[in-house]
Automatic annotation (TrEMBL):
Residues 165-233 form the PPIase FKBP-type domain. The lineage of its organism: Bacteria, Pseudomonadati, Pseudomonadota, Alphaproteobacteria, Rhodobacterales. PANTHER family: TRIGGER FACTOR CHAPERONE AND PEPTIDYL-PROLYL CIS/TRANS ISOMERASE, TRIGGER FACTOR-LIKE PROTEIN TIG, CHLOROPLASTIC. It is found in: Cytoplasm. Involved in protein export. Acts as a chaperone by maintaining the newly synthesized protein in an open conformation. Functions as a peptidyl-prolyl cis-trans isomerase. This is Trigger factor. It comes from the Bacteria. Keywords: Cell cycle, Cell division, Chaperone, Cytoplasm, Isomerase, Rotamase.
Length: 442
């Protein structure tokens, strides 16, 4: 087998591979000889079929297999000897289209190799880690919000008008074309005005009602309403208001704390403080990670595969187009051409991605089974009632596993770089941290 270099420009490589007719014939003979002991054919004992008959019966099939195995073997041997790692799927083509048995096989191999990533001194990277200590006012605000979610409703003074946010207790009967319909009747129904739990326009017409009032509500069912017999129809609801209740936040006491799984109010405050601290730490990490990536982008430069930049730019442009056109779900849309801005962002992403991958490989950073299991458990929460199906889907889908593994791997590499960078700590307020987070999207 002969391998001849035809292209060596930047990261682009091209080769011609020639597999001689004799090499191919020898490989076919070897494969037939290997399979012969297991082949049965009418008129012959197992393993005693003449070689000429075997070749006539299975020669073309074995020839194709031998050709593919030889080409694959030549490619693998080339990559092992050269040390090249292709940036994408190599382009392999057979050039002698008029090939017939007895001819040499000529194949072209073209690819872009991954670049050599230069060794980087991460101590040159300067980072600032923001820290925020939860203030008492922040804890009190979070506690008040919890109390709001655990609110009760108490009857207003007799004759009080219902306000948005109040709970009214009603009996109602719904009719379409003066005929009552299934599911359109209830007694003592507690409805929170402004909750948008009823048909659009229903709750607004009950604002201002008092206990004892009879209110006629006129609404139109939406065109896309679930029940076809009601979709788009005008309806009349005869409502009897039986009570008007105002919301009352729960008392901030030990009983409230126990509702949220804490032993006491002080314990609940402590838990809230820890949760806020974790939220602030997560936001601060986002800011520091962006600063790290900006620093690495300026510090490290090397040649990039054009194919990876093109693919990344197309993906960025496609994603942004769909964000701007959310009504288009499929791919039936005009061709999307990446802009210079998309290409610039793609270059950054490809460069940083290759750098992090190289650091991870050199430092032997791996995602453990426990970390993958935790990632899967977090995802499965989005599929209540379908946990088993989701687990089976993950087990069978290598691409999905990689999507879960990639951010974990990246975070572990980032942690390694941060440990070796020059990091200072700065205490800031919650507002200052929030501003820094907002500037990430600016």
């Amino acid at each position: 087998m002969q391998v001849t270099e035809t292209l060596n420009e930047g990261l682009k490589r091209g080769y011609t591979i020639v597999l001689t007719a004799k090499e191919l014939a020898d490989k076919v003979d070897a494969k037939l000889e290997e399979a012969a002991p297991t082949i049965e054919m009418k008129g012959f004992r197992k393993g005693k079929v003449p070689k000429a008959l075997l070749k006539k019966q299975f020669g073309q099939q074995v020839l194709g297999e031998a050709m593919q195995e030889s080409i694959d073997g030549a490619m693998n041997e080339h990559f092992e000897k050269s040390g090249d790692r292709p940036a994408g799927q190599p382009d392999v083509k057979m050039t002698n289209d008029d090939w017939k048995e007895g001819d040499d096989v000529e194949v072209t191999l073209n690819y872009e190799r991954l670049p050599d990533v230069p060794e980087t001194d991460f101590s040159k990277v300067k980072l600032e880690k923001l820290t925020v200590k939860p203030a008492d006012a922040d804890i009190d605000e979070a506690l008040a919000n919890l109390a709001e979610t655990a609110q009760n409703f108490e009857s207003r003074k007799k004759g009080s008008k219902a306000k948005d946010g109040d709970q009214i207790v009603i009996d109602f009967l719904g009719k379409v074309d003066d005929v009552a319909f299934d599911g359109g009747q209830a007694d003592d129904y507690p409805l929170v005005l402004g909750s948008n739990s009823f048909i659009p326009g229903f709750e607004e017409q009950l604002v201002g009602a008092k206990a004892g009032d009879d209110v006629v509500v006129n609404v139109d069912f939406p065109e896309n309403y679930g029940a076809e017999n009601l979709a788009g129809k005008a309806a009349v609801f005869e409502c009897k208001v039986k009570d008007v209740k105002e919301p009352k936040a729960a008392e901030l006491d030990d009983e409230l704390a126990k509702k949220f799984g804490a032993e006491s109010l002080d314990d609940l405050k402590k838990q809230i403080g820890e949760r806020l601290e974790a939220e602030y730490a997560g936001a601060a990490r986002m800011v520091m990670k962006r600063d790290l990536m900006d620093g690495l982008d300026k510090l490290v430069t090397f040649e990039l595969p054009e194919s990876l930049i093109t693919a990344e730019a197309n993906q960025i442009a496609h994603q942004l187009w769909h964000e701007e056109n959310p009504d288009v779900q499929g791919h039936d849309h005009p061709e999307i051409t990446p802009t210079d801005e998309h290409n610039k962002l793609a270059e950054r992403r490809v460069r940083l991605g290759l750098l992090l991958a190289e650091v991870g490989q050199i430092q032997k950073i791996e995602v453990t089974d426990a970390e993958m299991q935790q990632a899967v458990m977090q995802q499965v929460q989005n599929y209540p009632g379908q946990e088993r199906e989701f687990f089976e889907f993950i087990q069978k889908n290598q691409q999905m596993q990689q999507q879960l593994r990639a951010p974990i791997f990246e975070d572990k590499v980032v942690d390694y770089i941060v440990e070796n960078a020059k990091t200072t700590t700065k205490e800031v307020t919650k507002e200052e941290l929030q501003k820094a987070v907002e500037e990430l999207d600016a």
